[in-house]
Sequence to fold (329 residues):
Amino acid sequence: MIHSTIGNTPLRKDDYLSAKYNTTILVKEEFHNPGKSSKDRAAWFMVEDAIRNKKIKEGGTFVEASSGNTGISIALIAQELGYKAKIFVSASCSDEKIALLESYGASIERCDNSNGLHVFNSTQYLAQAYAANHDNTYFTNQYYNSNNIKAHYRTTGPELWEQTNGAVTHVIAGVGTGGSISGIGRFLKEQRRSIKIWGVEPLNSVYTFFLNQQPIPEDLPKFDDIEGIGRTFIPGSFDRNAVDRIFQVERLVSLHAAIAYRESTDELVGFSSAAVLAALETHSNEMKFSEDDVVVLFFPDHGDRYLHKIYHSAEVKQLILAANYEPLS
Fold:
């Protein structure tokens, strides 16, 4: 069964980054999951809970609003178990993700935005409306489903603790729904409260305001387009008590970080992983790592899902040249 192959992903030492920042930096490679992303964990917990508690009948349709990865995971698991999947994606979803959704037999709806349940034409609004108006469907609703946090509390957090023999001092992860960082943070802080859990979001996303208990400005500009992370609303799957700080990064800096990392390591990273690299680069003076720290970077998927958005994009190359960036390495 597919669930037996989810989780227990490698945690590798990144020699390049460790030398660069003079500390031990480890990368949690979630693309080793069967669906090639960390979203397999939450998808399994949500789907299994729905079936076990008879929220959906045999052969029914799982519905989700997704930037791509959660939808891919749900489509893969649904197909394996004999169910269907209908995924509502935002207009910015990468071509590679669309192709994968189609390969797993998912029905796909492209939507104007992903700005929350109360915004007409958003992925969340339309997914909820579809599920409410069609028989034998279940909206997994990753933004408000407690199993999103539970999946990482029960699997990812314990893995990181065991794989580092309890030595982990920091975890840095992109924040989209908030489920990954919240579940990881809850578990690790129960083991040792001093472990730092740091999130990364795009410039003008709202998590920083929420974490700092500040009102969210009504006229906040559109946040930078970094696929998979950033929000205009605070999902129920984000637990601010499990997170110490959020760092904001720019889209262009994240793209540059991905390209520079590939040049230095020959590794392709996904968009939110690139944002984590950008946070290291632009906020390293604030992070103040010591030689004894053990820093885990959470890489939720692989760069092969963003070839046209990052690595083969003429526009990206032009933007980087126009910005006169020096190599990050």
About this structure: The mean pLDDT is 94. DSSP finds twelve helices and ten strands in the chain. Residues 68 and 98 are 7 Å apart (CA to CA).
